[in-house]
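Recall the central idea of this unit: under ordinary conditions, the amino acid sequence of a chain determines the structure it adopts. In this exercise we apply that idea directly, starting from the sequence alone.
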Amino acid sequence: MKTIYGIQYLRAAAALAVVFFHAAEKTGHHFTIGAAGVDVFFVISGFIMWVISDRRPVTPLEFIRDRARRIVPVYWLATAVMVAGALAGLFPNLVLSLEHVLASLFFVPARSPSSGEVWPVLVQGWTLNFEMLFYLVFAGSLVLPRNWRLPAMSGLFLALVIAGRVATFDGALMLTYTRPIILEFVAGMIIAEFWLKGRVPPLAVGSALMACSLGGFALIGLLALPFDELITGPLAVLLVLGVLSLEANGCVRRVPLPALLGDASYSIYLWHTFAISVVAKVALEIDLGAPATMFMAVLSGTLIGIAAYMMLERPLMRRGNARRVAGGLAGRAAE
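Accordingly, the structure predicted from this sequence is:
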């Protein structure tokens, strides 16, 4: 599949927004709007899965296997580091329980014994619980005729959101999977369908959509306005549409550093909090000023993610791809 560099750069921007968000939390700054990077990720996820499945048809089992190879090993390793650190006393506020650790590893929403929040051991892994729901539903839809898949998934996710609005749920599972944020995957798939049909906003419209989105995010951030996915979700949709308009009109070129950050965005997202926590602790010990601490936290969080991508994620991906190719060749030979 040809790389859509606009999407790559958005992945990089979304990951860095989350890094800034957590760095600001640790250093006494305000960048709550950085959490909206997750909304951009979810729209992009819906877009990418729809485009990939159209260009490289797979069975439900193959789809889940490919996604597991991509997501699970690095996430399990990061979770293992958290567990080991907690057992060693490095994270005194982290309370472990076997049930919660297992739920975290297998992407089951559960309340943390540390805070009572519906968070896994590795807190930022909460988004992967949504991703795995999306992947399972997407895999199931692959047994349907292509024209039925998007309506079926849209209907299911919309029904879940409506259920969350009309009923009261106490369990972590339903509290999680009835949130409106799941509709961002649907929006990404709808955008992808228009992209595949060549129906992209013209450059002027796309530029306006992008400006409206960035302006909305900036306004929320500068005025410290309250927000949730009902606000940031539509802004993320506008941003993705705008960037795809630029892409379709030849305005996006490959730039090495943003492309690398896009490739490493998953690892940056998973690993950045480790580096930020260390920097915040060291800065407190040596009385480093808040601006310098913020800078070092963002830089270290980004660099540890790039290093994890280069040393862990990319080799694992290459190994998985090699196995998939070998399996395909073996299957054809057996035929």
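Residues 33 and 221 are 5 Å apart (CA to CA).
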